[in-house]
Records
---
Amino acid sequence: MPVKRVKISLFMLTACAAALVAVITVIDAGSTDARRGFMKEFEAIITAVIGGCLLTGGYGSAIGAFFGAIIFGMVTIGLTYTNFDQDWFQVFLGGMLLLAVVFNNVIRKRVTGER
């Protein structure tokens, strides 16, 4: 029974956190838009993979995801200060994901001794 209670309480806590973020976003922007969070899940995946989480699962840490978020944020803010065309931003994000996946696979094979 404790597992079920913890699971339900974590879902409730996540829903409350999502509601709080939504309220803060509406207060900050003054209005709401259904597309405001468009492609944020893709950015979250990129952040986790840059931080060392494997797409296949089973490996990763919160500290790595934190540093992945820091790196992703610095690159994103850096791109806004350049004359980089914003239409190519999603292509750049895909390239970052591709490089992170290749790098993770190389490291994983080196650590586990796979060929």
Note: Residues 39-115 form one domain.
---
Amino acid sequence: MDRRSFLKNTGLLAATAAVSPSLVSCTDSSQKAPFVYDTDVLVVGGGPAGVCAAIAAARMGVKVMIIEEGNCLGGMATRGLVGPFMTCYDRYGEQMIIKGIFEEIVDRLVEKGWAIHPEKVRWESPWSAWIKAGHDHVTPFESEGLKYILDVMTAEAGIKVLYHAHFLSPLMKGSTIKGATIVVKEGLQNISAKIVIDATGDGDVAAQAGAPCELGDKERDGKIMPTSLFFRINNVDSAKLEADVYKHLPEFKRVDNVSYRALHWNVAQAEANGEWDIARKSVNLFKSVKDDEWVINSTRIGNINPTESDSLTYGEIEGRRQVQVLMNFFHKYVAGCENATLMSSASTLGIRESRHVIGECVLNGQDLIDGVVPEDSILVASNSVDVHGGGKTANSSVYTTINAKWYGVPYRCLVPLKVENLLLAGRNLSADSVAAGAVRVMPPAMAMGHAAGVAAALCLRNGQTPRTVDAQEVRKELLAQNAFLG
């Protein structure tokens, strides 16, 4: 069923039309809401970037609050079941280059037995889905363990965490953000803040505050990368599965930007039998920490606008349908998966692309490929450019590895135009669609969060704004906190 048919059948088109006039007539809700919280730094969104931003700022002695619409921290890594963490090493797999708070989180997970350290995970292995390019030294982890670790770390740092809190609108004085209005169980509430960090992924705060934004890829008429719904399975005879994949490893290939990797021989069978309608030709399955558990990244839902609730609703439902297609596929076609059990599908779609907020610098994809490291870089990374749906067909993806050990992400990409006292962290950073296709993944997003948190704390310490703070001072503090900057 296509998206418009789905909306018509579920009544969402009619419901949207009925509700829209009342939404347009609403007055400014912030004046009706009480001021309940006052903080130095407000982090909107508790995903990988947001939680690292909050921890970094709080450890530097400022008062920090996170609002998160879900029931846990970690975002895509927890509610989204996205795993493993992609590479945190240099292009050649020789050195760990994303460190700082990210490394501390990994070390705490490893200590509890909830992760495998990336130094022990190499490419073309079950933990990397047998993929070579860009998949050396990934980090398998348990999402439930990560929830606990992040609760502990934020409590240790003295951070106020508020779950089930939905960002509604920014509080503005001219072009300066002063906090946010949120929706909670009690109703509308206001939070006053000196600095706000937009870690929503979709750039919700920046867009409503008046920062210029682009949705999707402007070079492709606003096309947005497809989404996925991750899920986890267990009760897999992993030895049997792995033996079958290794037997077919020489057959892995890319044809016209379409990957034929793990289980593509089974996909071809299922497709011929009318039991496969997913826009992929192979299956991305990553072995997890426990021997019989695997993380599956193989649903593909196109034409989703992450800034529209009806579009997201369709995506969630279609994602769950595709999960059932894949479970039937595992049971009927895949060696070792005859008795596999669906542990859980993610509680939220995996969004690869949404708004790109325009900042003081727009990160350029070619600069990443060429290994450019600007003087104000607040992280270096080697993650490959991975633009899903970037080719001529729904199956295709444009995948480009970089030509250097690493590239840099400048501090200026975290500072949006036209809005003061606002910082960006995560995939809504200022970047073109190609560059975002590399740094949207979790380790660089966490490093961005670390940098944004440090910058926010320095602004408060020095009486500066994100636009005027010295990027070299931010770099100096990051180095003191065990970040790696090349």
Note: The chain has two domains: 32-127+140-219+355-480, 226-345.
